[in-house]
Write a structure and sequence with these properties.
By secondary structure, this protein is mainly alpha-helical. It has nine helices and no strands. It is globular.
Length: about 180
């Protein structure tokens, strides 16, 4: 994926991302070809492959640009407690329910997993006292758990409140779900 600062390239990336989101509203993700995406975006295949490597890469760009969430963006970035993390992700899930539902319906929620893992790994306050190797396992664990909750939330119609989701996440991550 292009990561430079050329304004024309960045505008083209956003144009491609918007085109993909429009197409996903019309048909399943797996039925969208790169040719169709390029035609809808009004760009050439060469331009597409200069900016992205795949459709998944476009979704990853969209997650980063529009729908990303990183715990260190919160008011108190170094409150790395479990309840803070669960509240933050619960608010994120409920505020982006339609986009997240689209990921689940198109079986591409694994891209959300990668986004969450990367955000947690990049957060300097996420389990900062833990050795890095263990911290990466923790980032995998939390990313998997949050992605699983997103999937269940979407499959159940996105009706759970942020407070209920936060309680669910805290219970699961705190090990209190089997008592």
């Amino acid at each position: 994926m292009y990561c430079g600062n050329n304004k024309v390239a960045l505008a083209s990336q956003r144009q491609i991302a918007r085109a993909l989101m429009r197409l996903i509203e019309e048909k399943p993700y797996q039925d969208i070809s790169i040719s169709e995406l390029c035609k809808t975006a009004g760009i050439s295949r060469q331009t597409f492959y200069t900016l992205f490597t795949s459709r998944d890469n476009v979704v990853t760009f969209t997650l980063q640009e529009q729908y990303g969430y990183a715990p260190d963006r919160e008011d108190d970035p170094c409150d790395s407690g479990l309840s803070h993390l669960c509240r933050g992700y619960s608010a994120y899930i409920t505020s982006h329910r339609e986009f997240l539902r689209m990921l689940v319906e198109n079986h591409i929620e694994y891209l959300l997993y990668d986004s969450i893992h990367d955000a947690l790994s990049a957060c300097p306050c996420f389990l900062e006292t833990m050795p890095d190797a263990q911290r990466q396992y923790a980032a995998d664990f939390y990313a998997g758990g949050i992605t699983g909750v997103v999937k269940r939330y979407a499959l159940c119609g996105c009706h759970t409140s942020p407070e209920e989701l936060s309680e669910i996440l805290c219970g699961l991550f705190g090990g209190n779900c089997f008592s």
